[in-house]
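Notebook entry, cofactor series.
This is the third protein in the set we're modelling with a bound small molecule. For this one the ligand is zinc ion. I'm keeping the input format identical across the series so the outputs can be compared line by line later. Sequence and SMILES below, as received.
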Amino acid sequence: MNYKICLTIALVVAHFFSSSFAQIKKADGSNKAIICLTYDDGLETQLSTVIPQLDSAGLKATFFLNSIQGSAKSDVIGQTPEAVLGWTNAAKKGHELANHTLFHACPEKLGWDKSIAIETYTIDKIVTEIKTENTILALLDPSRKERSFAYPCNNFVIGDTDYSVIIKEQRLVKYARAGGDSNSIITDFKNLNIMKVPSWHVWTGTTLQELIAFAEKAKKAGGMAVYQIHGVGGQVFHISIETHKAFLDYLKKHQDEYWVTTFSEAMDFITTKQQNKK
Ligand SMILES: [Zn+2]
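Returned structure with ligand:
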């Protein structure tokens, strides 16, 4: 085989590995970008607004839950608490319920009270919280055996210890989402750390154009975009109800270009590819 043919084969192989590693093939052979819509903190506006909008668009998403209201209003007994009902139904409809610890401890410098600041935590305490939240999630959604995880405030350090390694070794969770910004598109699937998958923390007042621009970056790069969303139409870091609805309409309209799926399903797909390429 001469040098030119070898070089051509090498280039074709290199192209295959770099550009088509983790993408979904369209019927015409071109690729789809992967879009994960993830929502944090089990907020009430996610139950009242996000899930109905997703369901009417026929899209599935991931919800990272910490402690939810597990009892009905104090003067009422004998009723299922709204949050319990809401999240149970969300899981039945195919949305992913995932782990965000129990008490959502964050660094004190972000405004957390000392009593719930991560600086006061031990590894044992965070491990217990993650295990407990797994139990709660299993009660809300018995159908799912393995959980994804998101670090509260995108912080994976306690003292000097990166606890992502520990929760992976103990098999408490299967994949974990970390933080990032509006440039955090994932393109190097082969070397992606499945315990620190980057995401864009969507800030208050983010516009439809900005939400679309992130998806388009993923499309252009042949990669994956993970959105980290909080409130919709109210609550923390909220975007408007209309913006959220219009963004879902955009994704729906361009479904030949985007594969919109849950975080775990996307990661199962990527890790299967990782194993096949070893
Ligand atoms: Zn959170």
